[in-house]
Write a structure and sequence with these properties.
The structure is a single chain. The protein has 11 helices and 6 strands. It is an alpha/beta fold. It folds into 2 domains: 144 residues, Four Helix Bundle (Hemerythrin (Met), subunit A), CATH 1.20.120.1190; 164 residues, 3-Layer(aba) Sandwich (Rossmann fold), CATH 3.40.50.300. Helix 10 links the parallel strand 5 and strand 6. The structure holds guanosine-5'-triphosphate and magnesium ion.
Length: 343
């Protein structure tokens, strides 16, 4: 998705110059007075090379979508992954090169036309030198675009019409396990934190409605400004996509984090996002909560502090209970179209 295949500077120049040479050879085989032909050959060599190079650059610009026209989620995703400013800067450089090559094409076409026949080939060489140096100047930008292409290759495909549940919580609490339970998606599950680094999506159908369930990387209870890029993926999904947040607690604390810290994150996220929440206490099978044994009071303390929580083990078939909660989800309108139309 997103960015087309990016040629290297050598590919661009080789292609341009070899096509220029071919066009010159063709011209040379035409019947024409000699003193005119020499100049025509060089002229066509320069203009063909420029056109081929311009086409290559234009292809990059045309096939890369306007970043501002993308849904906000994609803009934020690109920003976290490669940086919107860097991407724009590199595209700007390609556009700059396109403009300069177009100028050189026109400039040298005229110069060669007006030159003495024996100077034409010298002018052509001069043009080639200048073309090469322009393309070499955008070498780093082409490298960056190629890097951006590979980083954005796995950009998730979002259905912006579907009602969307975003699963959030501390690392290792069972978010991906739950997504696997609820949908046919197969996110990686592992017994260590930060297994999920990007965004995973599963779909279910409820009463003919598509519900999109998004699994996110784990969050820690720290300010957004201290979060790493992996965590920011989760924040962006909450901010741009969530119609409901399914917040997972690990009631067994086997994830390695205290319920107290998990609860702090829960209240913090609740404070930031004005979105309905479904709190869910997971891994109850690892506790003695149900038999009212050890730690019962401790866990109950947290359960009682949350509103209408679900208490489950993602391992058993507790999906139905959760799905029922999804029936009341309402799509939250987001102001993607805050542009000119209204003014
Ligand atoms: N016993 C038990 N283990 C569970 C339950 N849910 C998840 N686990 C285990 O907990 C570990 C973490 O599960 P994941 O689904 O990878 O957790 P996550 O929240 O997606 O983790 P990150 O992506 O790293 O943030 C895995 O070893 C799971 O098998 C549960 O209900 N009961
Ligand atoms: Mg995960």
């Amino acid at each position: 998705m997103m960015i087309p295949t990016i040629p290297t500077i050598d590919e661009i120049l080789d292609k341009g110059f070899s096509r220029g040479k071919k066009a010159a050879d063709m011209k040379r085989s035409e019947r024409m007075p000699k003193h005119i032909k020499g100049k025509r050959v060089e002229e066509v060599r320069v203009t063909t090379a420029c056109q081929v190079i311009k086409d290559k650059l234009k292809m990059i610009l045309d096939r890369t979508p306007e970043i501002e026209e993308l849904p906000v989620f994609y803009q934020d995703y690109i920003d976290i992954t490669v940086g919107v400013d860097s991407l724009k800067q590199s595209l700007g450089a390609v556009n700059w090169a396109y403009g300069i090559i177009a100028q050189l094409e026109e400039q040298y076409r005229q110069k060669i036309r007006r030159s003495a026949p024996d100077r034409a080939s010298k002018l052509r060489k001069q043009a080639y030198g200048r073309i090469s140096s322009v393309i070499k100047k955008i070498s780093k930008d082409l490298d960056f675009l190629d890097y951006a292409k590979s980083r954005l290759r796995n950009m998730p495909t979002i259905n912006f019409d579907a009602k969307t549940v975003v699963i959030a919580g501390f690392p290792n609490v069972g978010k991906s396990t739950l997504l696997r339970q609820l949908t046919s998606a197969e996110p990686e599950v592992a017994n260590y934190p930060f297994t999920t680094k990007g965004i995973q999506i599963g779909h279910i159908e409820r009463h003919w409605n598509d519900i999109q369930i998004i699994d996110t990387p784990g969050l820690l209870d720290r300010p957004i400004s201290d979060m790493n890029d992996i965590e920011l993926n989760a924040i962006v999904a909450l901010e741009d996509l969530a119609d409901t947040i399914l917040f997972i607690f690990d009631s067994s604390e086997t994830c390695g984090y205290y319920l107290e810290n998990q609860y702090k994150l829960y209240t913090e996220i609740k404070r930031i996002f004005d979105i309905p929440f479904i709190p869910l206490f997971n891994k109850i099978d690892l506790t003695e909560y149900e038999s009212k044994g050890k730690n019962y009071e401790y866990i109950k303390g947290f359960i009682d502090k949350t509103e209408d929580p679900l208490i489950i083990s993602a391992y058993d078939g507790s999906g139905v209970e959760i799905l029922k909660k999804f029936d009341s989800i309402k799509k939250i309108p987001r102001d993607e179209e805050e542009d000119d139309d209204y003014y």
